[in-house]
Amino acid sequence: MEGYPVYERFHSWQGEGLHWGKSAFFIRLHGCPVHCPWCDSAGTWHPDHKPDSIVKMNPDELADEAFMACPEIVVITGGEPAIHNLQNLAYQLKSRNLPVHLETCGAFPVNGEIDWITISPKWASPPIEETLERADEYKIIVEDETSIEKWSEALTLKEEDIPVWLHPEWSKSQDPSVLHAITSWVKENGPPFRAGFQTHKLYFADQSDDRSLPEASLSHLPD
Questions:
Q1: Which of 95, 128, 146, 164 could anchor a disulfide with 138, C-beta 3.0 to 4.6 Å?
Q2: Within a domain: residue 147?
Q3: Cα distances (angstroms) measured from residue 213 to each of 21, 43, 216
Q4: CATH code of the domain in which 60 resides
Q5: Burial of 62 per CB tally in 10 Å (0-12, 13-18, 19+)
Q6: What is the pTM of this model?
């Protein structure tokens, strides 16, 4: 059976988006061609942060481990998880009555039966129409005060009828100009825009599971 390169898998709770606060089992897969300079999952792709060995697990093993955690949802993330064929993994999870969520940049076709898709678009690999049509929510990473306007124009976000979350890039999570830009945009535009935050980080929620690995932010790298 197909093996998936797994960076980490752990039980925490969803700290972002419409499913905020739900018990969640995260499966973080290796590999990402986007290479965001502020990536906090750098171990999934960056040569300076990759672990010495990469565990490959078959979907049955992963689904069993997720099932034993008794989560409300399972979140497949990365890296960029959609570079992998997720059909078998999604099938095994759903056969155990586990709702399957996916977090992706949207630049690649999504294989498999996924219940909820969050698209967090990146300029280096813009989302494709095929994946945009399957989106249930957007997560826009606000790097500076111009980010929201740029993405709103590029993806015509004002016309969306699904939530568009505005998250400060974590290294800017206390930057007054970034926070003010989000606040002003939400107040002036209303739906579909919503202010967002990576609240699980405030709780150190992921680190409560020993299987979770330390984050490695690349905010020091040039664009």
A1: 164
A2: no
A3: 21, 9, 9
A4: 3.20.20.70
A5: buried
A6: 0.94
Residue 34 lies in a domain: yes
Sign of CA dihedral 42, 45, 50, 55: positive
Q: Enter the tokens of residue 2.
A: 């197909």
Number of domains in the chain: 1
Residue with tokens 């997560």: 139
**DSSP helix/strand/coil, 68:** helix
* Mean pLDDT within 155-164: 97
Residue 94: what pLDDT? Answer: 98
> Chain-centre distance of CA 107, in angstroms?
13
Report percent pLDDT > 90 for the chain.
Answer: 86
Residue type, 34: V
Tell me the Cα Rg of the chain.
Answer: 17
Contacts of 76 (CB under 8 A, 6+ apart): 27, 29, 86, 89, 90, 100, 101, 102, 103, 114
Range of the domain at 75: 4-137+203-208
Model pLDDT, residue 219: 61
- Alpha-carbon distance 168 to 64, whole Å? 35
What are the C-alpha distances in Å from 13 to residues 10, 29, 106, 199?
Answer: 10, 18, 23, 10
